[in-house]
Recover the amino acids of this structure.
């Protein structure tokens, strides 16, 4: 829909509301007085003729909107206040869920006409009975809609971050969650208005609503229905008024739902024979006119592969979305994109950077794959699903395909998305940071899968990555972007001379414990003739399997520098911690014990699905363990974060893995970093904003980004903003879940430097990472979690 057409509907709605409000003043006749013979045809004196008793239809239409809205609007307001409030409570407090949903289910099955009969008997027929009935009939559905959406939003990083910093329930509901329900509520509002008006009209038909001679649109339809064949305008006029009002409300709410001008996709053209993907003069500008991409031209042979690299914010994801023709709203595009198309073949497949956002949380894995297969003409769904899952090294048994996305690890979600993207043999496959957050074995499986795809199909591969070394066997050409412009386009073999990844030698060497002296020393890279850091000895890393740490305490102080204080009290201690998921008998993490003193760093590694993120959430109080204790300064912490004090909440902060869901999309970056300071440090507004600007500079973000919403940041920028928000609480224990995986080498090095500075200042770090160079630089101790069957382990609740 064009912006001009949406504006037209807004004007129509405004005109209808003016008609409702000013109609009684403009009416030429009394709405209740007889003005002529019954069912007289339209004339100059009576524009819409007369009704069943000779009253002027035009005058009654002008009067009739106000009584209808006077019933419908209060009913809707009451329904939304009750429905939204109870839906938020049911979604955010699972203990209240059954007490709210059981009565809700009971009311849903009751026919509305039975409700109005009961209510009319109790309070009397009329507007009050209709309004109460309309509200009660709508409340259960609103509760269900809101609850479902809240359950989807509750695990998001920004909601859990708010819980972790101690936001009260009302603020979680009203400030963090409610603004993000706007699209759902707006989409529902038009339908709910239509249903409410219909209910009011039918109530009048049953004799329980407005009584004659009231000038109500619904009552007019009921009264004049017998004379429709003689004088149709007596029925059509009020019916059209209702229709225009309802449709204009729907169209305006749709406009609000999709606020902002729609993007114009690049002009699609058919690529020349043998060409997989071509771009000619591609330029993309955002809503403010800033060039996100500028004059991009290239040509990829069919079946070849291109890696797109560059610093965060360089325009890599925008480049991929332009190739897909799926730019977000507000973008303007010039230039052309050519793609080789073949009959019976899917055009594009896409695996986004954050796998959690690419899967429908309400659909089981098997259902999602079956729907995608059906969309591309595969009728034998089960066989296709089995083949697709095995193609990406995932189990295809019934138990796995019946899982929901939240029951899979991040690596499993990514491979499911890859399986979905490969259905239909796409001509172009786009992968946005495909190796982000994957352990070495899972990354190897992914690369093997992509290698087979390249060998067995003519699919053109477009990969956005910060991990060019790992993907180099797959890549033919490397495109480097810088501030939306082409910095270089080279063959893969020449990329090393163009790109400047952070050399491992630039990172400080790891701590290595001298087993003879018992002291910690540092091994330099020069000591390794190959120039690669040697693997840590078991005594140096204290790396252990989760199955071997039961009943033992793993202390990072055992491998501290000689100038450390091994006798000081640990900041955080964990004893025999066992974590399982709701409804699962098997623990995800069992019997973990360790302690950390100020300035120490524990790295947690393990395969995808081994429980690393679940353990981190348990430490932050976001996941209740089965057994075990977590201590802060020797005092046992309550397992639930909402039972911890503000000081305890501020002391332990978690930076979440998925940057796309870490920040609240409804608020500016600066406001989100200000909030922990206001709540936990009692800072003034000016002091909080000054500190926010310092934190943004510290994580390599420009201060003007303080006024941007998260959607206007790249994935790497979002991750750094999330780090800044966690640091705003001045935590004593900082838990970092794959915080460097989506960053370019230069920014990653700066963030590692920042974390090292925090250690020097006395912050204890718990680092979840698969990046060896980061672990070598920061970790005193490495804890490796092993899952008995990682492919079958549920990662998140």
């Amino acid at each position: 829909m064009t912006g001009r057409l949406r504006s037209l509907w807004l004007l129509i709605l405004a005109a209808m509301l003016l008609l409702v409000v000013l109609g009684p003043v403009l009416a030429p006749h009394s709405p209740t007085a007889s003005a002529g013979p019954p069912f007289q045809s339209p004339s100059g004196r009576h524009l819409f003729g007369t009704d069943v008793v000779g009253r002027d239809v035009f005058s009654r239409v002008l009067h009739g909107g106000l009584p209808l809205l006077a019933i419908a609007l209060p009913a809707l307001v009451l329904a939304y206040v009750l429905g939204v409030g109870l839906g938020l409570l049911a979604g955010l407090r699972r203990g209240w869920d059954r007490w709210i949903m059981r009565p809700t289910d009971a009311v849903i099955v009751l026919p509305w006409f039975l409700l109005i009969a009961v209510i009319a008997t109790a309070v009397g027929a009329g507007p009050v009975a209709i309004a109460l009935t309309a509200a009660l009939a709508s409340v259960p559905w609103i509760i269900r809609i809101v609850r479902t959406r809240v359950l989807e939003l509750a695990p998001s990083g920004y909601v859990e971050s708010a819980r972790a910093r101690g936001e009260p329930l009302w603020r979680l509901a009203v400030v963090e969650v409610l603004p993000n329900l706007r699209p759902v509520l707006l989409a529902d509002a038009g339908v709910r208005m239509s249903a409410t008006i219909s209910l009011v009209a039918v109530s009048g038909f049953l004799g329980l609503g407005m009584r004659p001679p009231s000038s109500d649109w619904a009552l007019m339809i009921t009264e004049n229905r017998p004379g429709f064949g003689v004088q149709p305008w007596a029925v059509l006029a009020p019916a059209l008024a209702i229709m225009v009002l309802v449709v204009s409300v729907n169209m305006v709410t749709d406009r609000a739902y999709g606020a902002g001008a729609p993007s114009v996709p690049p002009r699609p053209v058919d690529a020349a024979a043998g060409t997989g993907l071509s771009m000619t003069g591609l330029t993309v500008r955002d809503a403010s006119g800033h060039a996100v991409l500028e004059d991009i031209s290239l040509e990829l042979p069919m079946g070849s592969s291109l890696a797109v690299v560059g610093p965060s914010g360089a325009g890599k994801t925008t480049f991929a979305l332009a190739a897909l023709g799926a730019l977000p709203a507000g973008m303007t595009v010039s230039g052309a994109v050519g793609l080789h198309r073949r009959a019976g073949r899917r055009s594009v497949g896409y695996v986004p950077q954050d796998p959690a956002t690419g899967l429908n949380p309400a659909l089981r894995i098997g259902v999602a794959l079956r729907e995608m297969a059906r969309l591309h003409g595969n009728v034998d769904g089960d066989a296709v699903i089995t083949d697709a899952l095995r193609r990406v090294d995932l189990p295809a048994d019934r138990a796995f395909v019946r899982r929901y996305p939240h029951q899979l690890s991040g690596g499993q979600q990514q491979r499911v998305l890859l399986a979905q993207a490969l259905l239909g043999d796409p001509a172009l496959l786009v992968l946005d940071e495909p190796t982000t957050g994957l352990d070495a074995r899972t990354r190897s499986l992914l690369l093997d899968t992509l290698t087979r795809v390249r060998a067995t199909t003519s699919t053109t591969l477009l990969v956005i990555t910060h991990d060019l070394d790992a993907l180099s066997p797959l890549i033919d050409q490397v495109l480097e972007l810088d501030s939306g412009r082409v910095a270089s386009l080279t063959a893969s073999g020449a990329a090393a001379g163009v790109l400047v990844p952070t050399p491992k030698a630039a990172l400080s060497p790891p701590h290595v414990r001298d087993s003879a002296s018992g002291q910690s020393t540092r091994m330099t890279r020069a000591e390794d003739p190959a120039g690669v850091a040697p693997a840590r000895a078991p005594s140096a890393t204290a790396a252990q399997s989760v199955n071997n740490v039961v009943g033992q305490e793993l202390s990072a102080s055992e491998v501290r520098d000689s100038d450390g204080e091994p006798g000081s009290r640990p900041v955080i201690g964990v004893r025999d911690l066992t974590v399982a998921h709701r409804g699962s008998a098997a623990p995800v993490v069992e019997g973990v014990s360790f302690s950390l003193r100020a300035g120490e760093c524990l790295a947690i590694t393990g395969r995808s699905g081994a429980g690393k993120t679940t353990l981190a959430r348990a430490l932050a109080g976001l996941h209740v363990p089965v057994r075990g204790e977590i201590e802060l300064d020797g005092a046992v912490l309550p397992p639930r974060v909402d039972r911890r004090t503000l000081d305890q909440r501020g002391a332990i902060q978690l930076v979440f893995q998925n940057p796309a869901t870490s920040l609240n999309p409804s608020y500016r970056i600066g406001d989100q970093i200000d909030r922990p300071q206001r709540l936990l440090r009692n800072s003034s507004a000016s002091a909080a904003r000054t500190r926010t600007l310092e934190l943004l500079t510290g994580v390599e973000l420009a201060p003007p980004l303080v006024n941007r919403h998260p959607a206007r940041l790249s994935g790497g920028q979002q991750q750094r903003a999330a780090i800044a928000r966690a640091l705003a609480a001045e935590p004593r224990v900082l838990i970092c879940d794959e915080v460097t995986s989506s960053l370019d080498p230069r920014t990653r090095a700066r963030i590692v430097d920042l974390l090292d500075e925090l250690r020097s200042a006395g912050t204890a770090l718990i680092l979840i990472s698969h990046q060896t160079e980061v672990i070598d630089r920061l970790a005193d101790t490495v804890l490796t979690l092993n899952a008995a069957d990682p492919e079958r382990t549920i990662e998140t609740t």
